From TrEMBL, chain A:
Residues 1-23 form the signal peptide. Residues 263-277, 293-307 have a biased composition (Acidic residues). The lineage of its organism: Eukaryota, Viridiplantae, Chlorophyta, Mamiellophyceae, Mamiellales. The keyword Endoplasmic reticulum applies. This is Glucosidase 2 subunit beta. PANTHER family: GLUCOSIDASE 2 SUBUNIT BETA (PTHR12630:SF1), N-LINKED OLIGOSACCHARIDE PROCESSING (PTHR12630). Residues 198-226, 333-349, 356-368 have a biased composition (Basic and acidic residues). Residues 397-492 form the MRH domain. The keyword Ion transport does not apply.
Automatic annotation (TrEMBL), chain B:
Belongs to the glycosyl hydrolase 31 family. This is Probable glucan 1,3-alpha-glucosidase. The keyword Endoplasmic reticulum applies. Residues 1-19 have a biased composition (Basic residues).
């Protein structure tokens, strides 16, 4: 594109002698807004001009004459007469001293300087004088380009380095996964064995206890003084479902209204009209006054009830907290311990043994659970998409934080993204633009927006020399968009493209300054 | 934007009885306040009817619509079930005064009595004003133009003749006549030169009622949804009926989302059954399909998610109605009525076949102050009406371009990106808008510095490309001592007061606890106007314009989301007396502020609330509509209704405020927006981004074309605005306005006229492959193809997504600027295209108006404008100065538009030659034909020059 331009200038120089200034102006006129590559069609010595779409042939003096003759608008490259009609190829800004550009025909002679050389405003209808800012712009552009190139080069180097390290990462995870799967198989067998042992010991203990129970009951019946309520021996294994609903001691429902009587299980022997606190105390007192094993159902009631219930006072605080957050096995062991504390009984030795076995099983079970969690994690890691050639795999497990405007954003490229404490979503995919190859991390299913969608984030990756969360915005409500700088978005092609661009810019600017000095001659 | 989270659960509690009513405490107020604060209350996406009153739950309407006054109230109530008679008190050259009393009253001093004044105006209007003698009613200020309000000489000189049982009054200048019948009291108004059929009759049906002031005190309070209105003054309702004996259709009384031709609200079996005379409640059979049952309401309210077809009143009110009919001999009569009263009112309409149309008007307070507009053409009715309340103020040219708005453009970078987006996609626009989030905690005229650190630089950057910015400024003021505006107004006592008359009213709106400027007070308006000076409004520039929202006023925790009626304004006036005009006063003060700031140049302030007279102040939009095809469709009757009610500068939010339009709806809406007098895209906070280029390449191209078409039409639209400014004629017109004799168009609302020259039948249906078009009598040319049609004619036109069926009317000429540009500023020097559509005789005419687009010099002694008359006949195109009948040519010494004509496009040209010549310049031009359309190529003659071009 630049060569013909230089040629044209040489031509101009050569012919100036024979041409009048008027003809010169006329040439400029016909070629206004025309790229050098098309100059041959816009020549004042031709008699006609054919529209781009070949539909019409017009006289050459109807080119750039401020009237739109071609349906496709091709006869007015240097005026606004065809703006908004047909194919707008745009006005070609020569931008002497800088880089040529095109602006839409709607910008020609509209009072705003769009080309850096102001050539879009120097027509007969132009109304402003524009300063030539091309040199400045080219310099600024060069500086920007240099900076980008430096970053991209460093970034690319880093990417290449890490790529070596990352290579085989997925294979490694796969091996880890397989090994773990195997270990889990073994562990499971051991857990099953421990469970059998624990159950046997418990069965033994229960048998003994029931025998003693029977004896004692006979004795008590003979005394027959007390009328202890609700002394049915509960089923040891099935938790009392009714009692589990009994835990609401808040006194208010979610609407802030005082709750009506919470329905405790009918089979818990509830007394109509008692308060939660009264009920809690009643149930706790049953336990204490009774030397026998408390009903199993009480395990959850106890933890929910009033703080000063004696039963709770004797259960250590840490355990009580655990109950709330952990699984069934922990619950049970806590309960067993509580039972031990509560009931120093004659069959203590047997009970201790059963409990020990149970604990051994529980510990193994927990280990197994942990291993399974880890396996799930590994599997997810193995199955995840890390972009073409696993280019982003090094970002797995990493997180980045950045304060942007009012918020602190954090994003784990293959985990979760947050705005302060608000979850913006979890990584679900790496999208690759077919045309440009640029990558975007999609985070979805974040916190729901009131009356709207759940939050989501699209994080575009840009090549840079470091990993950095560059920006995050919310263009539509709850749909976030951001930019993440990372070496992993760099590529050798990108670097060479930038180098070419810089070289081209330098060449164009140098050529332009040569032309300029020649013009001065 | 508006209240988006309203959650209330309560019953209605209005008391129909009297001297009853105790406060029914509910938690609504608190619940609402909490909701607004927490922004986290559940809501259904629906209009909440239970939040608002109906006639039945408004005690005055329930009484006056059907009831009969009790016998023991006869000394406080005139009419309302019994006839009233009039007694002449005095006759002068300007006014005839009468007293009215109940028929059957003994005729003593103590009788219930009201004073009637009948006047006439130079424009043709006849005024009937009825006031309480004991306690004169509130007189709305600054609604009527100054001459009408203050100047006795604006009244026509009268010739009065009294004969048995009647007084005949004739306005000498206009020939308009009024026959005052004394018993029962009624006023028949006749247009000049009309025969024996009156244009309109006041009180033909005996609907007159006036509840007079009482001396004894009493408990009159009334409760609705937990809000108690103390009504210390007791009932002060007024009612009357107006019959249009010839009419088949009535239009007007905005604002509501309903049909253009107003449907009956009541239907009675026969007129003889005592229509409006307390005939009892409407029976079930009356509430059939043809009647709405509920009267039309006018009470400015912030109605959340309004329905697309409802008689319910919305954000603004204009108590002006136009009636139209065609006689058997094909004569057309158009007339109108304007009820000058800003209190809450309801209107019943009964379209009664050959008996014409009966209307009954019921207002809560104020005087009966009725202007009958005798017509007899649609244009004359509007001329008569705008002579009273003013015409459209000349808008600054940029404001007729496209406006891009969203709740909210978040920060300076967002603004920059959106602005850039328009340039990148080569889509023109003029103004970028910022909604409430740009402020520091909803303290208007402040900036959230975290996101708008350099507002002035931001605005200047837009200005550098010829663009403008608008920020929102609402009438509620955050109660924060550290907010100087709040503090200053508080210290000056400038807020609306509680019903104790002393304490500042405290209501909830966007900022939370707020006070409301009492803009009914001229001193407050004066002070408020000063707040827009550049050194007072930090970060503003002369290219910053204003948007007044929430000025009904919207009060989140108030009854019906507005102020209690017993709040006290300047001069001890109760809110009930001024409610419907409140928003306009605020709008006026803001506009005045901008005018001063910009050295007396034209202001631009968009308002949501409005009243009669708002057209003098600035544009309005139709509030919070929804992204829904029905809302797109109803926007046409809404905007058309506003136009025939004097307020032509209006538009609906393109795309629909609530919800997410799909690409098709968005595209179709832009194609309609092209023709809205006010053209703005806007969206709710919770919607997806919807800048014009976000709907795929194909739609972007179509939307670009729609916006570009708007800009191309600006010379014509500007000419139409000037016509509206001069005559009151709307820019966007119902078909009946242009074709009053065509019975087939009286209800048309899916097609409209832009001025006289273009008929547009936009596509309003999803997935439409074709639309049905009706062309009235005359020659028409399809814009896209040039195909000629002869009307009257009904046919289907096939449409693709890019098509908007537009027809050029034979006999008209208008001017375009066909070069795509990025803004109005960038179009300034562009050459013109003249569009000529010839009639069956090969003739056409039109005008072109231009001025500087920003000052008032056009209206000064300098006559700094240019109006050209363009005609075509005998194959000759002629340009000349406009004559007096077109509003004069302007003074070329003060202003000349040097624009060149680059093209004259002629439809229906009979000459077949391919050369045109201008004798004066001896130039000849090619005539280029594209199908049936002939273009005179590049005459390049300035439109300011007189010349003739003949096609050979």
């Amino acid at each position: 594109m630049r060569r013909p331009h230089v040629l044209a200038l040489v031509l101009v120089l050569g012919l100036t002698v024979v041409h009048t200034a008027r003809a010169d102006a006329r040439r400029r006129h016909v070629r206004r807004g025309v790229a050098p590559i098309d100059h041959h069609r816009f020549t004042e010595t031709h008699t006609t001009f054919q529209c781009d779409d070949a539909s019409t042939v017009i006289s050459i003096d109807r080119v750039n004459d401020e009237y739109c003759d071609c349906v496709d608008g091709s006869d007015e490259p240097g005026t606004s007469a065809c703006a908004g009609r047909g194919n707008d190829r745009g006005f070609y800004c020569v931008n002497a001293g800088g880089v040529a550009t095109r602006v839409p025909a709607s910008r020609v002679d509209d009072g705003v300087c769009d080309c850096c050389d102001g050539s879009d405003e120097d027509g007969e209808m132009g109304s402003v004088k524009c300063a030539n800012t091309c040199g400045e712009e080219a310099r600024a552009r060069r500086e920007g380009l240099m900076k980008t190139l430096r970053e991209a080069t460093r970034g690319e180097r880093r990417r290449a380095k890490e790529a070596d390290k990352a290579r085989g990462r997925r294979e490694e995870w796969k091996r880890e996964r397989d090994a773990l799967e195997e270990k889990i198989g073994e562990k499971r067998k051991r857990v099953d064995k421990l469970l059998r042992e624990a159950e046997e010991a418990e069965a033994e203990e229960r048998k003994i206890r029931e025998e003693e129970e029977a004896k004692r009951r006979t004795l008590e019946e003979m005394k027959s003084n007390d009328d202890a309520p609700n002394d049915d021996a509960p089923n040891d294994d099935a938790p009392n479902a009714a009692a589990t609903t009994n835990g609401n001691d808040e006194g208010d429902d979610e609407n802030g209204r005082p709750t009506e009587e919470t329905t405790a299980g009918e089979d818990a022997g509830e007394i109509i009209g008692e308060t939660d606190e009264e009920r809690g105390k009643r149930i706790a007192s049953q336990w204490i006054s009774n030397d026998d094993a408390p009903p199993e159902s009480a395990e959850e009631t106890g933890e929910d009830d009033g703080n000063d219930a004696p039963i709770d006072a004797r259960v250590d605080e840490g355990d009580a907290d655990d109950v709330v957050s952990s699984g069934r096995s922990k619950l049970r062991s806590m309960f067993d311990r509580a039972r031990r504390l509560l009931k120093p009984s004659r069959d203590e030795a047997l009970a201790a043994q059963a409990s020990k076995r149970r604990d051994a099983h529980d510990a193994a079970r927990r280990e197994l659970d942990d291993m399974n969690d880890k396996l799930d994690e590994l599997r997810a890691k193995v199955d995840r998409d890390y972009g073409p050639d696993d280019v982003l795999i090094s970002l797995s497990g990493q997180c980045f934080e950045q304060k942007i405007d009012k918020y602190t954003y954090s994003a784990c490229p293959f985990g979760e993204a947050k705005q302060d404490d608000v979850r913006l979503g979890k990584n679900v995919a790496v999208r690759v633009d077919d045309a440009t190859g640029s990558m975007t991390l999609k985070f979805e299913n974040g916190e729901g927006c009131w009356n709207g969608p759940s939050r989501s984030l699209a994080l575009a990756l840009e090549c840079s020399d470091e990993n950095r969360l560059a920006s995050i915005e919310e263009p539509s409500r709850c749909e976030y968009a951001g930019v993440f700088h990372t070496p992993f978005a760099c590529s050798p092609t990108m670097v060479s493209n930038l180098e070419n661009e810089l070289a081209e810019l330098d060449r164009v600017v140098a050529a332009a300054s040569r032309d300029a000095s020649r013009d001065e001659l | 934007m508006s209240v988006d989270r309203r959650h209330r659960a309560m019953g209605t509690g209005a008391r129909r009885g009297r001297r009853t009513g105790t406060a029914t405490a509910t938690r609504a107020g608190w619940a609402l306040a909490l909701c607004v604060l927490a922004r986290a209350c559940a809501r259904g996406r629906a209009f909440k009817g239970q939040d608002f009153k109906t006639c039945e739950t408004s005690s005055f309407c329930a009484r006056l619509r059907d009831g009969v006054a009790r016998d023991d109230d006869r000394n406080h109530v005139l009419g309302h079930g019994v006839d009233v008679r009039a007694v002449v008190r005095s006759k002068s050259a300007r006014v005839v005064e009468l007293d009215v009393v109940n028929v059957g009253a003994v005729g003593e001093e103590g009788d219930a009595r009201a004073r009637v004044a009948v006047e006439a105006f130079g424009s043709g209007a006849i005024r009937v004003r009825v006031d309480d003698v004991q306690k004169p009613r509130y007189v709305p200020k600054d609604v009527l133009v100054r001459e009408v309000e203050f100047d006795v000489s604006a009244r026509a000189l009268l010739a009065v003749t009294e004969s048995a049982g009647e007084v005949m009054i004739e306005a000498r200048e206009t020939g308009a006549r009024a026959r005052v019948r004394l018993q029962p009291f009624a006023v028949e108004v006749f247009a000049p030169g009309s025969g024996s059929i009156p244009s309109a009759v006041f009180n033909k049906r005996g609907g007159f009622a006036m509840e007079l002031a009482r001396e004894e005190s009493g408990e009159w309070s009334e409760t609705f949804n937990g809000h108690t209105d103390t009504r210390k003054g007791g009932p002060t309702g007024v009612a009357f009926d107006v019959t249009f004996p010839f009419a088949s259709d009535v239009y007007g009384i905005p604002e509501r989302a309903t049909s253009l031709s107003l449907k009956s609200t009541r239907q009675y079996e026969s007129a003889s059954k005592g229509w409006f005379k307390g005939g009892g409640a409407a029976s079930e059979s009356e509430r059939n399909e043809s009647t709405l049952g509920e009267p039309y309401r006018m009470y400015n309210l912030d109605v959340f998610e309004y329905l697309d077809d409802s008689p319910f009143g919305l954000y603004g009110s204009i108590p002006m109605m136009t009636a139209h009919g065609i006689s058997r001999s094909s004569e057309t009569i158009t007339s109108g009525v304007y009820f000058h009263n800003p209190s809450e009112m309801y209107v019943d309409v009964n379209v009664d076949g050959s008996n014409g149309v009966h209307t009954k008007w019921m207002a809560e307070s104020g005087a009966i102050d009725v202007f009958i507009l005798p017509g007899t053409t649609p244009g004359k009715v509007l001329q008569q009406y705008t002579a009273l309340t003013g015409t459209t103020s000349m808008p600054p040219l940029f404001s007729l371009g496209y406006h891009q708005c969203r709740w909210n453009y978040r920060d300076e970078n967002d603004v920059k990106e959106v602005d850039k987006g328009f340039d990148e996609h080569d889509i023109p626009y003029d103004v970028l808008w910022l909604d409430i989030e740009h402020t520091d905690g909803k303290r208007y005229m402040t900036w959230d510095k975290a996101v708008f650190p350099t507002p002035q630089r931001m605005i200047e950057d837009l200005s550098s490309r010829g663009r403008k910015m608008v920020t929102i400024v609402d009438p509620h003021v955050k109660r924060d001592e550290a907010y100087p505006i709040y503090k200053e107004a508080k210290d000056k006592g400038f807020y609306v007061k509680k019903n104790d008359g002393n304490t500042d009213f405290d209501g909830w709106c966007w900022p939370g606890s707020s006070s409301y400027l009492d803009v009914t007070n001229p001193d407050v308006r004066e002070w408020w106007a000063g707040k827009f000076s550049l050194n007072s409004y930090e970060g503003s520039t002369k290219d910053l314009y204003i948007w007044n929202d929430m000025n009904e006023p919207s009060v989140f925790n108030g009854p019906e989301i507005t102020m209690q009626k017993d709040l006290i304004h300047h001069g001890g006036v109760e809110h009930r007396d001024v409610h419907n005009a409140f928003g306009m006063y605020y709008h006026m003060a803001t506009a005045e502020g901008l005018k001063r700031r910009n050295d007396g140049n034209r202001p631009f302030v968009l308002s949501r609330a409005f009243f009669a007279g708002t057209q003098r102040v600035g544009p309005i939009w139709t509030g919070d509509n929804a992204a829904d095809w029905k809302h797109l469709a109803v926007s046409l009757p809404m905007v058309l209704t506003l136009g025939v009610s004097g307020l032509t500068f209006s538009g609906a939010d393109v795309g629909g405020f609530f919800g997410n339009p799909d690409a098709e709806l968005m595209t179709r809406w832009y194609q309609v927006g092209t023709y809205y007098p006010f053209f703005r895209g806007h969206a709710h906070l919770e919607t997806k981004r919807r800048e014009p280029w976000l709907f795929g390449e194909e739609n972007t191209a179509i939307i670009r074309d729609a916006i570009r078409e708007r800009y191309a039409l600006l010379p014509y639209i500007y000419t139409l605005f000037e016509e509206s400014h001069r005559t009151g004629a709307p820019v966007m017109r119902p078909l009946w306005y242009e074709f009053p004799a065509d019975a087939d168009v009286l209800k048309t609302q899916d097609a409209f006229m832009l001025g006289t020259a273009m008929l547009i039948r936009p596509v309003l249906e999803q997935g439409a492959k074709s639309v049905s078009v009706y062309l009235p009598k005359g020659i028409w040319y399809e814009k896209r193809s040039g195909v000629r049609h002869v009307g009257p004619k009904s046919f289907d036109v096939a449409v693709s997504l890019s098509d908007v069926p537009v027809f050029l009317r034979g006999g008209t000429i208008f001017v375009r600027k066909d070069r795509a540009r990025r803004s109005t500023t960038a179009m300034r020097g562009d050459p013109l295209t003249v569009i000529v559509a010839l009639d069956e005789n090969g003739r056409a005419s039109g005008t072109y108006y231009a001025d500087d687009g920003e000052s008032y010099e056009f209206a000064s002694k300098k006559s700094a404008f240019m109006r050209r008359r363009l005609t075509f006949s005998n194959n000759e195109f002629n340009v000349a100065g406009a004559g007096a009948e077109d509003g004069n040519a302007g003074d070329a010494k003060s202003f000349i538009d040097h624009s060149l004509i680059e093209r004259v496009t002629v439809h229906g040209l009979s000459a077949t030659g391919d050369v045109a010549t201008c004798a004066a310049t001896r130039d000849s031009f090619d005539v280029v034909r594209v199908g049936a359309v002939a273009n005179i190529r590049r005459p390049n003659l300035p439109i300011s020059r007189d010349f003739t071009i003949a096609v050979q």
